[in-house]
TrEMBL record:
Source lineage: Bacteria, Pseudomonadati, Pseudomonadota, Alphaproteobacteria, Hyphomicrobiales
HAMAP family: HutI
Pfam families named in the record: Amidohydro_1
Cofactor(s) this protein cannot do without: Zn(2+); Fe(3+)
GO molecular function annotations of the record: imidazolonepropionase activity; iron ion binding; zinc ion binding
Binding of Fe(3+), residues: 85, 87, 255, 330
Keywords on record: Cytoplasm, Histidine metabolism, Hydrolase, Iron, Metal-binding, Zinc
The protein's role, per its UniProt record: Catalyzes the hydrolytic cleavage of the carbon-nitrogen bond in imidazolone-5-propanoate to yield N-formimidoyl-L-glutamate. It is the third step in the universal histidine degradation pathway.
Name of the protein this chain belongs to: Imidazolonepropionase
One of the protein's GO biological processes: L-histidine catabolic process to glutamate and formate
Organism field: Mesorhizobium tianshanense
Principal localisation: cytoplasm
Gene behind the chain: hutI
Domain Amidohydrolase-related: 76-392
Length: 416
């Protein structure tokens, strides 16, 4: 059986009679290939392009030698979807705060009343690791059902050493329970826990000097994030955390300019951040700095919609300066209880004016870039992970156009 399994693993698997949206940078637009095919071996794409050229590359007997051939019957194939900004691991919900906001309370007022992130901290601290996994799996399953193959999951509801580690371990365990790639981000500088007694300086020092090194020592985080905002942490406080991240060899990301302009985008760029996220109040200097640094702008329409913001992120400035844009759910219990990348794309288009191409690139190629994974996934190209989504659609625009409708036919993760 072992020999048989090894032989099967080394065989080529082929998806033929398909239309491809490769999302490759070298191609125009969506990288559309009519009459396309994809071949994969050992979880990696070895060919993606016109079916006729595959025959030329591998020889006319390639179909006879393949371990499996899937006739896609003219369906579309895109890269598997990537959600590059989530707080998926959390306990309980905050539906009561939703009611407060419906009655007129602002995000800041909810926070000052003891709600907001701190209420999620209490719930997470009371939950065990396996309980966190059990509560988070349905949210992950909803995303997987729409073609998700890679997800980023942040901590930030523990806010002490043991509970931050618990949260990150639970996120890692989700990748063992489901066939999906999980990237974790340590978000210790998310909010003040009750025991901090309002001292942001002391807590940001604790995050930088104790919690972050403990997390890094156990290899629990792939990146370090922070929340730079008046109700959270100042640029100076975030800088201390980012200095510690760099010392630990971890890339950084930042919740920036969501509710005001503290020049978080420029701060993120100064540290060479993988991404700066939210960005509703980012100015031209911030956009220009991100473009120079190669920092991805992660657009989060779910939070904008849910907390009824009116200030839109400066999409025009990002286009003008050539800032790459990712799109993500920001799945979290308080400001974006959203578990649909398809709906997120529709929101990005209708609320912010992103094009179909920008939306699809935002949940594939640019989302991979925002996670530092562009060399491994996000496009249909040889050498990348065979992460595919196969759709029952007539044109790619349907993936952005429809609401509450899931046209996924099949999802492939690492070739299976």
């Amino acid at each position: 059986m072992a020999g048989e399994s090894k032989d099967r693993a080394g065989k080529i698997r082929i998806w033929r009679n398909a239309r491809l949206a490769t999302m490759a940078e070298s191609a125009a637009g969506l990288g559309i290939v009519e009459h396309g095919a994809i071949a994969a071996r050992d979880g990696l794409i070895v060919y993606a392009g016109p079916e006729a050229d595959m025959l030329a590359a591998f020889g006319p007997t390639v179909f006879g030698k393949a371990g499996e051939i899937v006739d896609c019957e003219g369906r579309w194939i895109t890269p598997g979807l990537i959600d590059c900004h989530t707080h998926l691991v959390h306990a309980g919900d905050r539906a009561n705060e939703f009611e407060m906001r419906l009655a007129g309370a602002t995000y800041e007022e909810v926070t000052k009343a003891g709600g907001g992130i701190v209420s999620s901290v209490k719930a997470l601290r009371a939950a065990g690791e396996h309980e966190l996994v059990a509560q988070s799996l349905p949210r992950l399953d909803a995303l997987i059902a729409e073609g998700l193959t890679t997800i980023e999951i942040k901590s930030g509801y523990g806010l002490d050493i043991e509970n931050e580690k618990k949260s990150l371990r639970a996120a890692r365990l989700l990748g063992e329970h489901r066939p999906v790639t999980v990237r974790t981000s340590f978000l210790g500088a998310h909010a003040l826990p009750p025991e901090a007694k309002g001292d942001k300086d002391a807590f940001s020092d604790l995050v930088a000097k104790e919690i972050l090194p403990a997390v890094a020592a156990e290899g629990l985080a792939d990146a370090v994030d922070g929340f730079c905002e008046g109700i959270a942490f100042s640029p100076e406080q975030i800088s201390r955390v980012f200095d510690a991240a760099k010392a630990a060899g971890l890339p950084v990301k930042l919740h920036a300019d969501q509710l005001s302009n503290l020049h978080g985008a420029e701060l993120a760029a100064r540290y060479g951040a993988l991404s700066a996220d939210h960005l509703e109040y980012t100015d031209e200097a911030g956009a220009a700095a991100m473009a120079t640094a190669g920092t991805v702008a992660t657009i989060l329409p779910g939070a904008y919609y849910f907390i009824r913001e009116t200030k839109k992120p400066p999409i025009g400035l990002f286009r003008q300066h050539g800032v790459r844009m990712a799109v993500a759910t920001d799945c979290n219990p308080g400001t974006s209880p959203l578990t649909s990348l398809l709906l997120t794309m529709n929101m990005a288009a209708t609320l912010f004016g992103l094009t179909v191409e920008e939306c699809l690139a935002g949940v594939t190629r640019e989302a991979a870039r925002a996670l530092g994974l562009f060399g491994k996934t996000g496009t249909l190209e040889a050498g990348k992970s065979a992460d595919l989504a196969i759709w029952n659609i007539e044109r790619p625009a349907e993936l952005v156009y429809r609401m509450g409708f899931n046209p996924l036919h099949a999802r492939i993760w690492r070739g299976r």
